[in-house]
Write a structure and sequence with these properties.
7 helices, 50% helix, 21% strand, globular
Length: 199
């Protein structure tokens, strides 16, 4: 059984997932996928706070709550499927790494968020990160959050390798897989590497 760590970079309605396995000194990508976190059958599910903006208070709360519940379900299902497939391939999932924003804490009140367009954007980003954390908890997987701007330094610290070497190695990891291997996948790989090195 090979140990594997998952890395996520979330967006509005979806997340990049990368699974790294092997020795922490030289891991390889064993899984790469896009997981959908918004249900297209639900109006506004991709950007629920935008959808709720300008609505009456009770309607706004209903829209946001419905979309959050749907995204939590989709995250649990998608992560559960990925973990099941990795286990069938004789991998033990050690944990998950999640890239975080660098912003301040959000107000808890939906209406305070809806009063600021900047907070609306921040709340949607936070919502998609939160559904991934909850999905990990649902599967009893520890989730390590790392601020995106700090991930290269954290990976260098965790692996004992210099940052330029890590950047080159991550760029090479995607070559055998073919596209897509963009910034999303590279950063998700770095945060997964942090988790793998610390496991």
């Amino acid at each position: 059984m090979a140990r594997v760590a998952l890395g996520f970079r979330a967006h509005s309605g979806w997340a990049a997932l990368v699974a790294l396995a092997g020795p922490p000194t030289s891991p390889s990508v064993v899984e790469l996928r896009r997981i959908e976190l918004a249900d297209p059958a639900i109006a506004g599910s991709k950007q629920p706070y935008h959808e709720a903006e300008g609505k009456k208070p009770k309607e706004a709360e209903r829209i946001v709550a419905r979309c959050i519940e749907s995204s939590r379900r989709l995250a649990r299902e998608a992560l559960g499927l990925a973990v099941d497939e990795l286990r069938r391939d004789h991998h033990v999932v050690a944990g998950c790494g999640l890239l975080l924003a660098s912003g301040r804490a959000l107000p808890e009140d939906v209406h305070a968020i809806l009063a600021s367009h900047a907070l609306i954007h921040a709340a949607e980003g936070e919502m998609y990160r939160d559904v991934l954390v909850r999905a990990g908890a649902h599967l009893s997987l520890p989730v390590t959050g790392v601020r995106e701007r700090d991930v290269l330094a954290r990976a260098a610290e965790a692996t004992g390798r210099p940052a330029p070497e890590l950047q080159g190695r991550v760029a090479e990891m995607g070559r055998p897989l073919g596209p897509p291997w963009r910034q999303d996948e590279k950063l998700a790989s770095l945060v997964a590497w942090v988790v793998l090195a610390q496991a």
